[in-house]
Amino acid sequence: MAFAWKAAGITYNRYLAIAARVVRRSLKEGPRLQAERRGEMDLRFAKWQNGKQGENKSLGEANASAMAEQAKAE
Amino acid sequence: MSSVRIARTALRARSAAIARPVQRRGYADAVSDKIKLSLALPHSSIYKSQDVVQVNIPAESGEMGILAQHVPSIEQLRPGLVEIIEEAGGSKQFFLSGGFAVVQPDSVLSINAVEGYALEDFSSEAVNSQIQEAQKIASGGGSEQDIAEAKIELEVLESLQAALK
């Protein structure tokens, strides 16, 4: 089975996250406000090299750019 | 002396009975007509090993109805409507965002999804406005990833719109 989003470098995990996000946004006001809190993710990471902390990056943005690179490489 | 012999033959008769269980097996004792359903989301479980009659799932390979004694299989789910026919005869419908259904031996069914809600929790206005927005992005000049994401959203929203009608 071919999935169109795979060509854009999108992983299955990301696909599920997008589908879940759009389902949460389609809910009625009451359950939506509660549900949308589950979609928030704010992780940051830094690479340590030679005992020094590198640049502090957002995991979400780093993942997005990695997927774009993956799509270009193929 | 003779009582010992009787005891021995009795023992032998018993061990033979254990080795060869009764061969008679009626359809009624062999086949339970219920499925044990677990429908789990990361944040809650809607069904916890509950007996139900039938479950209809939107598998990637097509719509499937699962009854008791189904062949074990693993199915990837499309974003769509899961229908559960309960023992009492009523049926419940949940819209799942996508995940997997695992049919295990002995009529055990586990469905895992990221988000799942009953149909009455959705707002059709929210769905319609998001469809317009996603269509704009999908046909716009954004990055390849933005367009692919908008197309995924469209797939989910169109399935949701069809379910809400």
Key structural traits:
heterodimer, A: 74 residues, alpha+beta, two-stranded antiparallel sheet, 2 strands, B: 165 residues, ATP Synthase, domain 1, 2 domains, nine-stranded mixed sheet
CATH-defined architecture of the largest domain in chain B = Sandwich
- Sum up the overall morphology of chain A in one term: flat
Q: Which segments of chain A are poorly predicted (pLDDT under 50) over 5 or more consecutive residues?
A: none
Alpha-beta content class of chain A: alpha+beta
Number of distinct helices of chain B? 4
Oligomerization category of the chains in this entry: heterodimer
Biggest interface: A-B, 29 and 31 residues
Helix content of chain A: 55-70%
Q: What is the strand tally of chain A? A: 2
Kindly estimate the percentage of residues of chain A that lie in beta strands according to DSSP: 15-25%
Count the E strands of chain B.
9
Please count the helical segments of chain A. 4
Characterization of this structure:
The complex is a heterodimer of chains A (74) and B (165). Chain A has 74 residues and is an alpha+beta fold. Chain A has one domain (4-73). Helix content of chain A is 55%, strand content 18%. Chain A has four helices and two strands, in the order H-H-H-E-E-H. A two-stranded antiparallel sheet of chain A has the order 1-2. Chain B is α+β, with helices and mostly antiparallel strands and 165 residues long. Chain B folds into two domains: 33-120, ATP Synthase, domain 1 (Sandwich), CATH 2.60.15; 122-164. Chain B has helices at residues 2-19, 27-30, 124-139, 144-164; strands at 35-40, 45-59, 62-66, 73-77, 80-86, 91-96, 99-104, 108-113, 116-118. In chain B, a hairpin with a 4-residue loop joins strand 1 (35-40) and strand 2. The longest helix of chain B has 21 residues, at 144-164. The chains are: A alpha+beta (74), B alpha+beta (165). Chains A and B meet through helix 1, helix 2, helix 3 and helix 4 of A and helix 3 and helix 4 of B. Chain B: This is ATP synthase subunit delta, mitochondrial. Chain B: InterPro entries: ATP_synth_F1_dsu/esu (IPR001469), ATP_synth_F1_dsu/esu_N (IPR020546), ATPD_C_fung (IPR048938), ATPsynth_dsu/esu_N (IPR036771). Chain B: Keywords: ATP synthesis, CF(1), Hydrogen ion transport, Ion transport, Membrane, Mitochondrion, Mitochondrion inner membrane, Transit peptide, Transport. Chain B: Residues 122-162 form the F1F0-ATP synthase subunit delta C-terminal domain. Chain B: Residues 36-108 form the ATP synthase F1 complex delta/epsilon subunit N-terminal domain.
